[in-house]
Each structure stands twice: as C-alpha cells, then as structure tokens.
C-alpha cells in the first residue's frame, strides 16, 4: 500500500523551492521519526534542511512515479512536464547517481523546457551535498558541450566564413566576442539573435565558465582527493578555455596556495602536473613572456621541496617530486636537439649518436646531482621515521633510474 505522506512531502518540497529558488546548500537532519505535525523541510538563508525520516518516504514516491511515467504506465503516462522536472529534482537531491533522472533532464533541456542556466544551478546545489557525484559532473559536461556546439555553429553562421575558427591552428581559442550562445533557451526563441543579444550571451558563457571553476574548487574543498572535481576542472580548461596560456599561468598561481594547505591531496597535485605539461606544449608563446618551461619546473621543484621540509611524512609530495624530476629529465633542451638529429638522414648518424651520448651523460649528471641533494639536505632534515622511509624509497627509485640510463 502506498504511503499517503508521499504526495504531501513532494508538494512541500516544491513549495520550498518556489519560496526560495536560490537555495545553494542542503543537508539531511538526524530526525528519524516525525515528532510534530509540521513540514520536515527547514529553510533559512538559502540553506535547506530535510528531516531524515522524510527522505525514505519521498524517495519511494517520486521514484515510483517517475519510473512509471518513463515506462509509460497508463496511470502516470500523461504527467505535466513541470511535474516531471520536479520529480527528477526530488530524486536527484537524494540519489544523484540516478541515470534515469539525469537523462530525463537532458530531454527537457533539448526540448527547450529546462534552461541550461537553471540546470547548472541545480547541479551546483547537488554538489554541495554530494561533491564526488560522478553523474552530476558528467551531466554538467553535457550541458557545457551543448553550449559549445551552439557557440561554434552560431559563430560560423553569424560570420559567414570559417575564419572565426581557424583550421590550421589547433591551439587557437574561441573568440568569445564572436560567439552567441542561447544559454537561457526557450521554445519561443528560435530566431537569430541580435548583436546585443549575441554579446550578452557571450558574456553569460564566460560568466558560467568562471562560475564552473568555483564549483570545482568548492567540491574539491568538501571532499578530499576529489578526482571527479579535478578531472572536470581539467575538462573545462581544455574544452571551454582552450588551454589558454593566460588561464594556465593563472591556475598555476591560484592553486599553489590551495595545494599548500592540502598537502596529502594527490588529485590537486595531479592537476598542477597537467598544467605544467600543457605549458610545456606552448614553449614559443611562453618565450614571448620571457618564461621558459624549465623555469616553471625548477620553481615547482623548489616549491615541493619546501613543502617536504615543512610537512615531512606525506607520500603525495614525494610522488609529485618524482614527476617533476622525470619531467626535467625528459624535457631538457638536449633532448630536443637529439630528437632533431635523429630525424636527419643516415649520413648524419655520427652526429645523432654523439647527441644521444651527450643526452645520456647529462641525464646521468642530473640523477647524480639529485641523489647528492637528497642524501645530504633531505637526510639531515628527515625528522620522522616515516619520512625517512619515503626518502629511502625515493633514493632507491633514483638509483634504479641511474642504472637504467
């Protein structure tokens, strides 16, 4: 027998969002049984609290009704789209990994019934309670992909040529001033946007991209080693910001303070490794700013060595140091010269061999130098037993590199 409280709880939840559509955080209150004849939804200063007993009843009702509608059950086949949207909201709030609910919202976006901006706002609310929800991040990437596809098609249509998106420059970023994105879509708005609307949509797209970076930062702050949040941040930089040089440099600077206070969060350091790798691919552009990838890597090495001294006994820092040292070995200018000589004809094989020997000697020198550094400075500063063990593993790894060089 169906619980008669389900429809009332569903109506109460909908009324809460009508009263305050800007709810930015919610949580479950440890109230296992109803103790009064009042609504179990408590709203204050854009924060929503839901009594635990109501979650089970509400979830059973909305899941049954939504699945029944999805399977075209005659009793619930013809539900108003607004109710369908509210059903997905109630279900996702407490079960964000429900594929069916997210897919229904995708269909509502494609039909123009649900605004992309509103769906992004709802996803940010879900992440306030479930910061590691993979399905939520996947859905957000889908939303941004819709924006990007519309951006590119609208940019080409409005400019009348392919010049807006150069084919011969894969690194070129999308000119946001030339993009018109219908972020707040509606069924009635099918015509071409005016120039003022186009500029406004461009501004909104940039604003949503900036807000998305903050959403990623909050999710990473709420859940340690949040791989999904950092991976989503990488995706935004790659697909929405086109790995812009200014963005990469800015991210290196902004995440330094965050990593200094989250020294065991490997996902955060992996993000910095991504930034360094992308910056290395843009050596020519960096040279225009009088910056070399080598300077960035050496600065990062000094940064992580300082963290190891200040916070001994954290394995994440030592693994980051391994990455940096490998990066230094494999991206040295001598390595580039050797690769160029290897492309020469057979007549220059002597020069190629000499280049390879010079590179081998240089790598051996760098490894020996690093071994000397950790065997003197780090060993003296290794205060804890665990940090001494991590130091020993790093030295063993260097010795393995030395023998294989």
UniProtKB/TrEMBL annotation:
Entry keyword annotation includes Transcription regulation: no
Residues annotated as transmembrane: none
GO CC terms in record: cytoplasm
Annotated PROSITE patterns: PFTA
Gene3D superfamilies (UniProt xref): Protein prenylyltransferase
GO molecular function list: protein prenyltransferase activity
Entry annotated with the keyword Repeat: yes
Keyword entries, A-Z: Prenyltransferase, Repeat, Transferase
Record-stated family: Belongs to the protein prenyltransferase subunit alpha family.
Protein name: Protein prenyltransferase alpha subunit repeat-containing protein 1-like
Organism of derivation: Biomphalaria glabrata
């Amino acid at each position: 027998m169906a619980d008669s409280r389900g429809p009332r709880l569903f109506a109460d939840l909908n009324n809460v969002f009508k009263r305050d559509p800007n709810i930015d955080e919610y949580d479950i209150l440890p109230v296992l049984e109803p103790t009064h004849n009042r609504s179990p939804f408590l709203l204050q200063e854009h924060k929503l609290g839901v009594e635990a007993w109501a979650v089970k009843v509400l979830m059973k009702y909305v899941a049954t009704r939504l699945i029944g509608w999805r399977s075209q059950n005659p009793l619930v086949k013809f539900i108003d789209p607004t109710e369908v949207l509210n059903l997905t909201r109630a279900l996702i709030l407490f079960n964000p990994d429900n594929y069916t609910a997210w897919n229904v919202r995708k269909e509502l976006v494609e039909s123009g019934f649900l605004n992309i901006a509103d769906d992004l706002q709802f996803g940010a609310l879900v992440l306030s309670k479930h910061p590691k929800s993979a399905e939520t991040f996947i859905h957000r990437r889908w939303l941004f992909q819709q924006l990007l596809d519309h951006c590119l098609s609208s940019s080409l249509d409005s400019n009348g040529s392919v010049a807006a998106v150069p084919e011969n420059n894969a690194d070129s970023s999308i000119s946001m001033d030339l993009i018109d994105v219908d972020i707040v879509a509606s069924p009635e708005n099918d015509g071409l946007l005016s120039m003022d609307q186009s500029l406004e949509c461009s501004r909104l797209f940039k604003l949503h991209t900036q807000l998305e970076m903050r959403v990623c930062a909050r999710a990473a702050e709420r859940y340690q080693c949040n791989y999904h949040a950092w991976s989503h941040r990488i995706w935004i930089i790659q697909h929405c910001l086109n790995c812009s040089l200014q963005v990469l440099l800015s991210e290196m600077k902004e995440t330094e303070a965050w990593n200094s206070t989250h020294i065991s969060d490997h996902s955060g350091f992996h993000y910095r490794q991504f930034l360094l790798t992308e910056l290395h691919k843009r050596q020519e552009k960096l040279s225009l700013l009088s910056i070399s990838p080598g300077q960035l890597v050496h600065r990062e090495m000094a940064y992580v060595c300082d963290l190891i001294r200040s916070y001994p006994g954290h394995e994440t820092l030592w693994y980051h140091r391994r990455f940096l040292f490998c990066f230094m070995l494999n991206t040295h200018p001598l390595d580039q010269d050797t690769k160029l000589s290897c492309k020469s004809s057979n007549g220059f094989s002597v020069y190629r061999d000499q280049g390879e020997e010079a590179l081998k000697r240089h790598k051996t020198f760098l490894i020996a130098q690093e071994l000397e550094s950790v065997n003197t400075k780090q060993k003296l500063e290794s205060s804890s037993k665990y940090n001494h063990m991590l130091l020993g593993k790093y030295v063993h790894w260097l010795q393995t590199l030395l023998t294989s060089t």
